[in-house]
Design brief:
The chain is built from 5 helices and 7 strands. It is an alpha+beta fold and 218 residues long. Strand 6 and strand 7 form a beta hairpin. The radius of gyration is 26 Å and the shape is elongated. The relative contact order is 0.13.
Length: 218
């Protein structure tokens, strides 16, 4: 009878401190693994959304070129499609052709890379790409036909913020190739090429990236 009571008492006792600590440690490890996997999945999704943005920008450029004698919009100095009395960058042309309203902070649009929300000051981001001018002023529209290497010529890339309003510089070139483009996709950068295809370049491909930018030069 005593043995039976003793066994029942043992079966009803709670966890020991050591058992609780081990359980908490295991839960902590599992939570860390799950959170890490979730963060990695989110970053991959953000990279995919960014590539989709660039593909849509490429489609806009193709439509624009079809309506403008085979020319791309200039990086700078385009007639404002909303107000012919002013000049605007390529971003406003894309906005117009994509039938977008002027974007607000973190508002989903094809000019906002979701990863930029993590890298821009105060997490304020709305227009986060720059067009390649490769040493030029960017005021002259370029005809698609003049590019001899369209599949290896960078046109639009992820770019760093300028100021705190959530915008990047609208252009970049050889002089600021190491400062304006932003390698924000876990050390990689997304690029739209002149032929319309998009690619994620790893950090190890910076020499290739420089050649892709240089190819823009006539």
């Amino acid at each position: 009878m005593k043995a039976r009571f003793h066994n029942l008492a043992r079966s009803r006792r709670g966890f020991t401190i050591i058992e609780l600590l081990v359980t908490i440690s295991i839960i902590g490890v599992l939570a860390t693994l799950i959170l890490g996997a979730s963060n990695a999945a989110r970053k991959r999704a953000d990279t995919a959304v960014c590539l989709s943005n660039l593909r849509q920008q490429g489609a806009v450029f193709a439509i624009y070129a079809a309506e403008n004698d085979g020319s791309l919009p200039a990086a700078l100095g385009n007639v404002d499609p909303y107000n012919s009395g002013t000049l605007v960058s390529w971003m406003m042309v894309v906005q117009y052709y994509a039938d977008m309203n002027f974007p607000k902070d973190r508002q989903r649009n094809i000019l906002l890379c979701p990863s930029a929300v993590q890298t821009y000051p105060g997490r304020v981001a709305r227009r986060t790409y720059a067009m390649n001018v490769a040493g030029g002023a960017g005021n002259t529209p370029q005809k698609l036909a003049r590019f001899t290497k369209p599949s290896t010529t960078a046109l639009v890339v992820d770019a760093r913020a300028v100021g705190n309003a959530g915008d990047s510089s609208s252009t970049f070139g050889l002089s600021d190739i190491n400062t304006t483009p932003e390698w924000r996709h876990q050390g990689a950068i997304n690029v739209l090429f002149v032929d319309g295809h998009c690619q994620t370049l790893a950090a190890s491909a910076k020499a290739d990236f420089q050649r892709h930018v240089q190819n823009f030069v006539p």
